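Whiteboard transcription, Tuesday session. T.W. wrote the C-alpha cells on the left side:
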C-alpha cells in the first residue's frame, strides 16, 4: 500500500516500494488511500515497473486519471474532465487508441490545432472558432493525463494567444436597480448575497442555521455530481471558499423572517436576474459578475486586497481579482485625470 506524506511546500508525496525499489510521486492535493494507490501504480507503470499497464491507450489512461482524482478536485472540474475524456475518444479516435508510451508532442499539437480551428462535425452547431481558454483547458487535461505516465517529459505545445479581456463590472446604479426590482421576492436575498461576493452554489447551500447574528458561516456548496444529480458537498470550490462574512442587518433579518436563504438551484438565480434586467432595460450581466462588482466596490473603498480575497473566497494572488484591481485602479485614474483637466481648463481659460 502507498504512503502519503505532507511536504513543507503544502503538497503531498505518495511513496511505494516495489521489488526493493522506492517510487515516489508529488501531487498538489491530498488523495484518498485508493486514489494514492492508483496514482502511484500508474506512475510505476510509466517508469517500466509494469509494462502491461504502461502500454494502455490514452482513452484508458484518461479514464483512470479522472477516477484517481475524484474527491480531490471539485465536482465541476470532474464533470468537465469526464466530458473532455468522452469528447477526445469520440472526436479523436486514432489519438485515443495510441499507447501513452508512444504519444509525441506532434500528436498532441495535431489534436490541439484541430480543436482550435472549430472544424467539428460532432458539435451540435457549427463552431467558427474556439476561445483560447477553451483550447487551453483541453490541453491542460491531456497534459495532466500524460504527466502521470510520462512525468519526465513536457507536452507543452503552441496554443492560441489569449486576448486581454476587460472584466465587466456592473455599476452601483445597475445593482441597486436590480435589487429594488426584486425587493420582497424570493430572489432578493440571493442576489444581495451574490453582490456581497458569494457564488451561486454557496448561496443555494446556505440555511438559516448558517447565520449567527449578522455572520454567515460559508462551509457548503450545491453542485451537480458526475451523474448530473444535485448534491450538497461539505466544502466549497477551493480551500479559500470556507469563510465567515458579515452581512447587513437587513439581510440577516430577511433570512430569519423566512427561515431559509433560497429554495432553488443556481440556474434559477441567473434566470431571474436576466428577466429583471430585460424588464429594466439595463445591460445583461450574470450572477457571477456580481462577485466582480463586490471586489471592485471593496477595492474602491480602499479595503486591502487580502481582506477582499478572504471575504470573497478567492485564493491568494487570484488572477481574476488582480484583473479587477487593475480595472478599478484604471477607472480611478480616469476620474483623477478628469478632475485635473477640469482644474487646468479653468486656469487656462
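and on the right, the sequence the group agreed on:
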Amino acid at each position: 500500500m502507498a504512503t502519503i506524506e505532507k511536504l513543507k511546500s503544502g503538497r503531498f508525496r505518495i511513496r511505494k516500494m516495489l521489488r526493493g525499489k522506492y517510487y515516489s510521486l508529488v501531487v498538489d492535493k491530498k488523495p484518498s488511500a485508493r486514489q494514492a494507490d492508483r496514482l502511484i501504480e500508474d506512475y510505476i507503470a510509466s517508469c517500466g515497473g509494469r509494462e502491461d499497464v504502461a502500454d494502455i491507450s490514452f482513452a484508458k489512461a484518461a479514464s483512470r486519471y479522472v477516477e484517481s482524482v475524484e474527491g480531490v478536485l471539485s465536482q465541476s472540474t470532474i464533470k468537465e474532465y469526464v466530458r473532455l475524456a468522452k469528447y477526445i475518444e469520440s472526436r479523436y479516435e486514432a489519438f485515443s487508441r495510441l499507447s501513452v508510451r508512444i504519444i509525441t508532442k506532434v500528436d498532441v499539437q495535431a489534436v490541439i490545432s484541430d480543436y482550435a480551428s472549430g472544424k467539428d462535425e460532432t458539435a451540435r452547431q457549427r463552431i467558427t472558432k474556439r476561445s483560447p481558454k477553451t483550447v487551453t483547458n483541453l490541453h491542460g487535461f491531456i497534459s495532466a493525463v500524460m504527466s502521470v505516465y510520462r512525468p519526465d517529459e513536457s507536452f507543452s505545445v503552441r496554443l492560441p494567444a489569449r486576448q486581454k479581456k476587460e472584466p465587466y463590472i456592473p455599476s452601483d446604479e445597475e445593482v441597486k436597480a436590480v435589487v429594488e426590482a426584486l425587493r420582497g421576492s424570493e430572489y432578493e436575498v440571493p442576489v444581495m448575497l451574490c453582490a456581497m461576493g458569494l457564488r451561486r452554489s454557496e448561496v443555494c447551500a446556505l440555511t438559516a442555521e448558517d447565520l449567527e447574528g449578522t455572520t454567515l458561516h460559508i462551509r457548503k456548496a450545491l453542485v451537480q455530481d458526475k451523474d448530473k444529480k444535485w448534491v450538497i458537498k461539505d466544502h466549497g470550490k477551493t480551500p479559500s471558499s470556507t469563510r465567515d462574512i458579515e452581512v447587513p442587518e437587513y439581510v440577516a433579518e430577511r433570512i430569519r423572517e423566512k427561515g431559509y436563504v433560497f429554495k432553488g438551484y443556481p440556474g434559477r438565480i441567473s434566470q431571474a436576474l436576466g428577466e429583471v434586467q430585460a424588464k429594466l432595460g439595463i445591460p445583461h450581466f450574470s450572477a457571477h459578475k456580481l462577485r466582480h462588482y463586490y471586489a471592485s466596490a471593496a477595492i474602491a473603498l480602499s479595503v486591502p486586497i487580502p481582506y477582499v480575497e478572504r471575504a470573497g473566497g478567492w485564493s491568494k494572488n487570484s488572477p481574476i481579482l488582480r484583473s479587477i484591481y487593475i480595472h478599478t485602479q484604471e477607472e480611478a485614474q480616469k476620474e483623477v485625470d478628469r478632475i485635473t483637466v477640469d482644474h487646468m481648463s479653468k486656469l487656462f481659460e
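Someone added at the bottom: The chain has a mean pLDDT of 86.
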